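Q: For a teaching session next week I want to show students how multiple molecules come together into a single three-dimensional assembly. I've collected the sequence lines for a complex. Could you give me the predicted structure tokens for the whole thing so I can convert them for display?
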Amino acid sequence: MKPEKYWHSVTLQRESCKGCTTCLKQCPTQAIRVQNGKAKILKERCIDCGECIRVCPYHAKKAVTDKFDRLSEFRYTIALVAPAFLGQFSKSEDCDLILTSLLYLGFDHVYEVAKGAQEISAATRELLGSGELMQPAISSACPAVSRLIAVRFPNLIHHIVPLRSPMELSAEAARKEAVEKTGLKPEEIGVFFISPCAAKATAVKDGVTVEKSHVSGVIAMKDVYLRLAQRIGSIEEVKHLSDAGRVGTLWATSGGEAAATGAKRWISVDGIDNVIRVLEDMEDDKLTDIAYVEALACPGGCVGGPLTAENNFVARSRITRICETMPELGGTIPPEVPRSWDGAPVYRPVMKLSEDLGVAMQMALDLEEIAERLPGLDCGSCGSPSCRALAEDIVRGYAKETDCIFVTRERLQALLKLAREKHLDLPDDLEE
Amino acid sequence: MSNSMVFRYDVDGDDFTLAGEISSKVKKRLKQLGLPPETIRKVAIAMYEAEINMVIHANGGTITVEVSPETIHIIFADRGPGIPDIDKAMEEGFSTASHEVRELGFGAGMGLPNIKKNSDKMTIDTKVGEGTTIELWMEVC
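A: Of course. Below is the structure for the complete assembly, covering every listed component.
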């Protein structure tokens, strides 16, 4: 794959950030520091999982997504609907109604990503049966997990199933279909993904597993929700648009994707911390009896994405109900639209201290020494996520030991002691 | 510049849930040094197996990891019961682990063979009633 450009959807709104340590402590790749009272995202480490968006009490973390005005760049537009979208509305569990409502926002057509998911399930089943995959095989569907593997688990890159995401497959199929129907040129057709997460917005642009995305833009699910929530109840003419089946739609919730692969022994892991735990075990060769790992960064799966409007438990319940009335399989995508991905993600050794092993070793030794002197409270007040991370930042030259308030306090006390011994005049409040 | 560095860890004797923790710490450090992923994988697997062995059979012990640009040298030392028949212990599937341990999914008799498989050289120094020291060498590939 081509080199990283470090484009990220997750960004900081500086003016809203209070410099608290909430995101700092939650970030699974230790990609955040607080400097001069504001959070800072280390671009090379960020995997766009959106944990910081979820936890920030001041809503200072945002996902950059496309606005509706981008629709005007195209002659014909398609809303590419993630299955999680079906679970967002308290007023409706009618797929056709929900999909029709999107036409009122200016889209000319809708296309369900669940159709692509169904095809990827079938392709995965075939690959698992062929015995060609490294087992346990890891799903390639969650872009945050793929990036996590690229920065933290290089040994597991070859376990990722070499298939495209349902989004990419569906985007190409949708455009192809539209070209045939309208006679327009492919570039005149805008395909907009209605996304539950920031990671998908990044996946379209960053080139980690996709050379050139077939998605023209990514619109946040909650932005669409905002425009539709009131309107959806008053739509009179409902078009028959739903063409997806249960197998693809259940990808919205954890477990749905893994079950559809037909793997003998699968596990479904959701929530980024759980994913990390399982990947650590895989790295130690502990999951020898598991054939397939569905690993999703968000709690509950895509319904738990940071850009959804409904909480993931309610959304899951709605999707389960919707699926009861669906056929098992929906419409298919012609086999000439490729299922395989453009390439595996490339290992990004962002934790490496230095290019030179000798230098790295000296830095690691210094790091251990510094870490010994730090209090081990992992309070985050210094702006690094843990005492070890501060020690690492110090040896990298980004921080100093006195950034630790406990170290500073000790030094101040020593200074006061010295001043007292020398009978220097000190302000009264320092004497205590 | 430094030519080698050493990490030392104590393995707690009676806590299964902690097994793997040291492996995880070592992995993190080796990634910081920028060692090749394949080397890190071998170390991780060997470490984990050895840690489990120490918990199951020897009531804990110590692990020393010495990293130099060419080799990783690991020493697992315990004061456990020792291994009466090393050849037998090296057979795949041979295990002296208790029923309870097997119930937990450990003690399948793959520990030592797996450790050997993931190292370039292995020596075992053991005395019944006194303890076992296993040394591993892995070339940085």
